[in-house]
Amino acid sequence: LNTLFPFTGKAHLIGVTGASGTGKSSLVNQLARHYRQPRQAETPPRVAIVAVDPTSPFTGGAILGDRIRMRDLAGDPGVFIRSMATRGSLGGLAAATAAVVQVLDAAGFEVILIETVGAGQSEVDIARLAHTTIVVEAPGLGDDIQAIKAGILEIADVLVVNKADLPGVENTERALRGSLSLGHPLPQRMLHHGRMETLPGQPDAKPDQQEWVPPILRTVALDGTGIPELVDAITKHQAYLKQSGGWKQRERERLQAELELLMQRTLLDSWRSRLTAGVYEMVLEQLVARQISPYQAVERLVSF
Ligand SMILES: Nc1nc2c(ncn2[C@@H]2O[C@H](COP(=O)(O)OP(=O)(O)OP(=O)(O)O)[C@@H](O)[C@H]2O)c(=O)[nH]1
Ligand SMILES: [Mg+2]
What we know:
It is built from twelve helices and seven strands. By secondary structure, the protein is an alpha/beta fold. It has a seven-stranded parallel beta sheet, sandwiched between helices. The longest helix has 29 residues, at about 245-275.
């Protein structure tokens, strides 16, 4: 990874997240196929797919299913598919996924699709890897609003209502639009003032520089309906990020987050290795007996 690192930073990392069964793998399959279509003049980008499954650490059942759903990509040397499972440790999954993505980036895959089940913090962490995050919903998954987790909506750059061939699409779309207007109050602000506000202290903020408002798109991953429009939205988001400076900012935030995580781990490990045997247990006992508070416990432990 150290040797590869200088060669990373070129790929467009696209996260695809959403509740289980919304059709993420089918969508990723369709996206990859679309990217790989031969176009005039330009060679199609090489596409890597990283399917992360934090929910089934042992069976790998979903991964087998993905293999089947992505079968029509097999044989295309410009597509690489890698599945990852937790194998027990949730915390390490984000780091392991980041490492795999780095390898693929360095290997020259221009488009890297990262599929995760949107359920918890670990998945949000993985989604943070991406430049562009697609949140996938589908009609009929219980109560609409409840299916849309606030944390997940916050990270969405593009919203997709997949399975648009099923009844209830309008409801899902309406629920999404409702939640979205809570998170992006900018249009209202524009109405009130009649023009876009330029935030003070941002000299280079141009009045015409609009905030990105996630589009809501309908797709049918089964037959590819809406896929060209989705790819178009992804491309527009990439252009927006590059032009607004958001691309560099995301890179920076991502690398900083990785650095922080590594620092925490490294410091903790080296501290543990220097700790005299039995000290930790002793302090823990004092804490449990309420002789000292957690803060005092920490004070004692770091002073050893
Ligand atoms: N009717 C309909 N079914 C779809 C559509 N897209 C996917 N499906 C079906 O929905 C099921 C789940 O699709 P997947 O692509 O595996 O969904 P997923 O979100 O990757 O699922 P997990 O990885 O298990 O979370 C499969 O049986 C698909 O055939 C669609 O647009 N319309
Ligand atoms: Mg899947």
